[in-house]
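Journal club prep, notes for RB
We'll compare a predicted complex against what the paper describes. Inputs for the cytidine-5'-diphosphate case:
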Amino acid sequence: MNIAIDGPAGAGKSTVARKVAEQLGYVYIDTGAMYRAVTLCAQRANVATNQNTKLADLVKSLEIELEPGETGQSVFVNGENVTALIRTREVTLQVSHVAANETVREVLGIMQRRLAKRKGVVMDGRDIGSHVLPDAELKVFLTASVKERALRRYREIADSQNITLEQLETEIADRDRLDEQRDISPLVCASDAIVLDSTAMTIDEVINAIVKLSRTKMAEAK
Ligand code: CDP
Protein backbone atom coordinates (compact mmCIF):
# COMPACT_ATOMS: atom_id res chain seq x y z
CA MET A 1 0.00 0.00 0.00
CA ASN A 2 0.95 3.66 -0.16
CA ILE A 3 1.06 5.95 2.86
CA ALA A 4 0.60 9.72 2.55
CA ILE A 5 1.79 11.97 5.37
CA ASP A 6 0.86 15.62 4.98
CA GLY A 7 1.03 18.58 7.28
CA PRO A 8 2.61 21.97 7.94
CA ALA A 9 6.32 22.78 8.34
CA GLY A 10 8.02 21.38 11.40
CA ALA A 11 5.31 18.88 12.35
CA GLY A 12 7.92 16.12 12.19
CA LYS A 13 6.80 14.62 8.89
CA SER A 14 10.19 13.81 7.40
CA THR A 15 11.66 12.11 10.50
CA VAL A 16 8.47 10.20 11.09
CA ALA A 17 7.95 9.23 7.44
CA ARG A 18 11.54 7.99 7.13
CA LYS A 19 11.31 5.84 10.26
CA VAL A 20 7.89 4.46 9.36
CA ALA A 21 9.24 3.49 5.94
CA GLU A 22 12.25 1.85 7.60
CA GLN A 23 10.05 -0.22 9.92
CA LEU A 24 7.74 -1.35 7.15
CA GLY A 25 10.48 -1.92 4.56
CA TYR A 26 8.94 0.80 2.38
CA VAL A 27 10.56 3.53 0.27
CA TYR A 28 10.48 7.03 1.74
CA ILE A 29 9.87 9.96 -0.61
CA ASP A 30 10.34 13.53 0.63
CA THR A 31 8.40 15.68 -1.83
CA GLY A 32 9.39 18.91 -0.05
CA ALA A 33 12.98 18.15 -1.06
CA MET A 34 11.86 18.20 -4.70
CA TYR A 35 10.30 21.67 -4.33
CA ARG A 36 13.44 22.80 -2.53
CA ALA A 37 15.63 21.47 -5.36
CA VAL A 38 13.64 23.44 -7.95
CA THR A 39 13.93 26.54 -5.76
CA LEU A 40 17.71 26.19 -5.51
CA CYS A 41 18.00 25.86 -9.29
CA ALA A 42 15.73 28.88 -9.85
CA GLN A 43 17.90 30.96 -7.52
CA ARG A 44 21.05 29.86 -9.30
CA ALA A 45 19.55 30.72 -12.68
CA ASN A 46 18.21 34.05 -11.42
CA VAL A 47 14.66 33.07 -12.25
CA ALA A 48 12.19 34.99 -10.09
CA THR A 49 9.12 33.26 -8.69
CA ASN A 50 6.80 35.41 -10.82
CA GLN A 51 8.56 34.50 -14.09
CA ASN A 52 6.13 31.73 -14.87
CA THR A 53 7.37 30.70 -18.30
CA LYS A 54 11.00 30.63 -17.23
CA LEU A 55 10.16 28.67 -14.10
CA ALA A 56 8.16 26.19 -16.17
CA ASP A 57 11.06 25.71 -18.63
CA LEU A 58 13.49 25.31 -15.76
CA VAL A 59 11.54 22.60 -13.94
CA LYS A 60 11.17 20.63 -17.16
CA SER A 61 14.96 20.65 -17.61
CA LEU A 62 15.64 19.09 -14.21
CA GLU A 63 16.16 15.48 -13.41
CA ILE A 64 15.56 15.09 -9.69
CA GLU A 65 16.63 11.89 -7.97
CA LEU A 66 16.11 10.84 -4.36
CA GLU A 67 18.40 8.24 -2.85
CA PRO A 68 17.86 6.69 0.57
CA GLY A 69 20.79 7.05 2.99
CA GLU A 70 21.68 6.26 6.61
CA THR A 71 20.67 9.63 8.04
CA GLY A 72 18.09 10.72 5.52
CA GLN A 73 17.61 11.09 1.87
CA SER A 74 20.20 12.36 -0.60
CA VAL A 75 18.90 14.62 -3.32
CA PHE A 76 20.47 14.92 -6.76
CA VAL A 77 19.64 17.38 -9.52
CA ASN A 78 21.00 16.58 -12.95
CA GLY A 79 23.60 14.42 -11.23
CA GLU A 80 24.72 16.99 -8.61
CA ASN A 81 24.31 16.19 -4.92
CA VAL A 82 22.33 19.15 -3.50
CA THR A 83 21.26 17.53 -0.21
CA ALA A 84 22.76 20.22 2.04
CA LEU A 85 22.26 23.13 -0.37
CA ILE A 86 18.47 22.78 -0.41
CA ARG A 87 18.23 23.26 3.38
CA THR A 88 19.61 26.81 3.53
CA ARG A 89 17.49 29.68 4.81
CA GLU A 90 17.53 31.33 1.34
CA VAL A 91 15.82 28.28 -0.12
CA THR A 92 13.40 27.94 2.81
CA LEU A 93 12.27 31.55 2.45
CA GLN A 94 11.48 31.15 -1.26
CA VAL A 95 10.24 27.60 -1.59
CA SER A 96 6.54 28.27 -0.95
CA HIS A 97 6.51 30.86 -3.73
CA VAL A 98 8.06 28.43 -6.20
CA ALA A 99 5.69 25.71 -5.00
CA ALA A 100 2.70 27.88 -5.93
CA ASN A 101 3.61 27.70 -9.64
CA GLU A 102 1.20 25.55 -11.62
CA THR A 103 3.74 23.93 -13.96
CA VAL A 104 6.18 23.23 -11.15
CA ARG A 105 3.41 21.37 -9.29
CA GLU A 106 2.29 19.56 -12.40
CA VAL A 107 5.80 18.33 -13.33
CA LEU A 108 6.72 17.30 -9.78
CA GLY A 109 3.31 15.69 -9.30
CA ILE A 110 3.93 13.46 -12.33
CA MET A 111 7.36 12.45 -10.94
CA GLN A 112 5.81 11.70 -7.54
CA ARG A 113 3.02 9.55 -8.97
CA ARG A 114 5.56 7.61 -11.02
CA LEU A 115 7.62 6.93 -7.90
CA ALA A 116 4.54 5.61 -6.09
CA LYS A 117 3.25 3.48 -8.96
CA ARG A 118 4.53 0.18 -7.65
CA LYS A 119 3.22 0.91 -4.13
CA GLY A 120 5.18 0.47 -0.92
CA VAL A 121 6.01 4.14 -0.46
CA VAL A 122 5.68 6.55 2.41
CA MET A 123 5.41 9.99 0.82
CA ASP A 124 5.42 13.20 2.81
CA GLY A 125 4.36 16.66 1.69
CA ARG A 126 1.44 19.06 1.65
CA ASP A 127 -0.90 17.70 -1.02
CA ILE A 128 -0.09 13.99 -1.15
CA GLY A 129 -3.34 12.62 0.30
CA SER A 130 -5.49 15.35 -1.24
CA HIS A 131 -4.00 15.54 -4.72
CA VAL A 132 -0.94 13.47 -5.66
CA LEU A 133 -2.05 10.09 -4.27
CA PRO A 134 -5.78 10.44 -3.54
CA ASP A 135 -6.00 6.62 -3.52
CA ALA A 136 -3.32 6.15 -0.86
CA GLU A 137 -4.49 3.39 1.46
CA LEU A 138 -3.44 5.32 4.57
CA LYS A 139 -3.47 9.10 4.89
CA VAL A 140 -2.14 10.89 7.93
CA PHE A 141 -2.35 14.62 8.57
CA LEU A 142 0.43 15.38 11.04
CA THR A 143 0.27 18.68 12.80
CA ALA A 144 1.37 20.50 15.98
CA SER A 145 1.01 23.99 17.40
CA VAL A 146 3.04 26.65 15.60
CA LYS A 147 4.99 27.34 18.82
CA GLU A 148 6.00 23.71 19.17
CA ARG A 149 6.91 23.43 15.49
CA ALA A 150 9.09 26.54 15.68
CA LEU A 151 10.80 25.19 18.78
CA ARG A 152 11.56 21.87 17.09
CA ARG A 153 12.97 23.58 14.02
CA TYR A 154 14.98 25.91 16.27
CA ARG A 155 16.61 22.97 18.04
CA GLU A 156 17.41 21.45 14.63
CA ILE A 157 19.00 24.44 12.94
CA ALA A 158 19.84 27.19 15.45
CA ASP A 159 23.49 26.18 15.64
CA SER A 160 24.04 26.23 11.90
CA GLN A 161 21.80 29.15 10.91
CA ASN A 162 21.81 32.50 12.61
CA ILE A 163 18.17 32.78 13.58
CA THR A 164 16.05 33.42 16.68
CA LEU A 165 13.07 31.40 17.86
CA GLU A 166 10.76 34.37 17.25
CA GLN A 167 12.00 34.76 13.65
CA LEU A 168 11.46 31.07 13.05
CA GLU A 169 7.93 31.20 14.42
CA THR A 170 7.07 34.09 12.10
CA GLU A 171 8.65 32.37 9.09
CA ILE A 172 6.83 29.12 9.77
CA ALA A 173 3.50 30.92 10.19
CA ASP A 174 4.11 32.79 6.90
CA ARG A 175 4.91 29.56 5.10
CA ASP A 176 1.79 27.89 6.55
CA ARG A 177 -0.29 30.77 5.23
CA LEU A 178 1.24 30.63 1.73
CA ASP A 179 0.87 26.84 1.56
CA GLU A 180 -2.73 26.91 2.81
CA GLN A 181 -3.90 29.79 0.65
CA ARG A 182 -2.39 29.03 -2.75
CA ASP A 183 -4.82 28.29 -5.58
CA ILE A 184 -3.35 25.02 -6.78
CA SER A 185 -3.37 22.00 -4.48
CA PRO A 186 -3.00 23.90 -1.21
CA LEU A 187 -2.13 22.34 2.12
CA VAL A 188 -5.39 20.77 3.30
CA CYS A 189 -6.34 17.83 5.41
CA ALA A 190 -7.89 15.24 3.07
CA SER A 191 -11.41 14.28 4.18
CA ASP A 192 -10.32 10.66 4.71
CA ALA A 193 -7.04 11.47 6.51
CA ILE A 194 -6.39 10.60 10.14
CA VAL A 195 -5.33 13.69 12.06
CA LEU A 196 -2.44 13.30 14.49
CA ASP A 197 -1.61 16.29 16.65
CA SER A 198 1.97 15.71 17.74
CA THR A 199 2.26 18.77 20.03
CA ALA A 200 2.45 16.62 23.14
CA MET A 201 3.78 13.44 21.53
CA THR A 202 7.34 12.19 21.17
CA ILE A 203 8.67 11.22 17.74
CA ASP A 204 8.58 7.54 18.75
CA GLU A 205 4.95 7.81 19.84
CA VAL A 206 4.03 9.28 16.46
CA ILE A 207 6.01 6.62 14.57
CA ASN A 208 4.39 3.82 16.58
CA ALA A 209 0.92 5.26 16.03
CA ILE A 210 1.40 5.38 12.24
CA VAL A 211 2.97 1.91 12.05
CA LYS A 212 0.02 0.58 14.05
CA LEU A 213 -2.47 2.31 11.76
CA SER A 214 -0.73 0.90 8.70
CA ARG A 215 -0.77 -2.64 10.13
CA THR A 216 -4.48 -2.32 10.82
CA LYS A 217 -5.08 -1.14 7.24
CA MET A 218 -3.01 -4.02 5.85
CA ALA A 219 -4.93 -6.56 7.95
CA GLU A 220 -8.25 -5.06 6.78
CA ALA A 221 -7.16 -5.35 3.15
CA LYS A 222 -6.40 -9.08 3.45
O1 CDP B 1 10.70 20.36 5.94
P1 CDP B 1 9.75 21.52 5.93
O2 CDP B 1 8.57 21.21 6.76
O3 CDP B 1 10.39 22.80 6.21
O4 CDP B 1 9.18 21.69 4.49
P2 CDP B 1 9.37 20.76 3.25
O5 CDP B 1 8.59 19.50 3.43
O6 CDP B 1 10.82 20.64 2.94
O7 CDP B 1 8.62 21.58 2.11
C1 CDP B 1 9.10 22.85 1.72
C2 CDP B 1 8.00 23.59 0.99
O8 CDP B 1 7.71 22.92 -0.23
C3 CDP B 1 6.66 23.70 1.70
O9 CDP B 1 6.59 24.80 2.59
C4 CDP B 1 5.70 23.89 0.53
O10 CDP B 1 5.67 25.22 0.11
C5 CDP B 1 6.35 23.07 -0.57
N1 CDP B 1 5.73 21.74 -0.73
C6 CDP B 1 4.55 21.67 -1.44
O11 CDP B 1 4.03 22.68 -1.86
N2 CDP B 1 3.99 20.46 -1.70
C7 CDP B 1 4.54 19.33 -1.24
N3 CDP B 1 3.97 18.16 -1.52
C8 CDP B 1 5.73 19.38 -0.47
C9 CDP B 1 6.29 20.62 -0.22
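Talking point for the session: Residues 203-221 form the longest helix (19 residues).
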